[in-house]
Write a structure and sequence with these properties.
Length: 61
């Protein structure tokens, strides 16, 4: 069964695909889907801002 995109006021994160190219965690996509169905930058290949959030500023409450 196919599912459509979830309605969210937040834009999906924009990964650096050159960093994600050989990542085995995200399979080169640069993003992962959480158990809540949210898209987040891959914690393995994408740099974080150092403040606990992701590079795009989206955090999960």
């Amino acid at each position: 069964m196919a599912h459509g995109a979830h309605q969210s006021p937040l834009l999906p994160p924009h990964p650096d695909l050159s960093l994600a190219r050989d990542c085995e965690h995200c399979l080169g996509w640069g993003t992962v889907v959480t158990f809540d169905g949210l898209h987040e930058l891959c914690p393995t290949c994408q740099p974080s801002t150092g403040d606990g959030g992701t590079a795009t500023g989206t955090t999960v409450p």
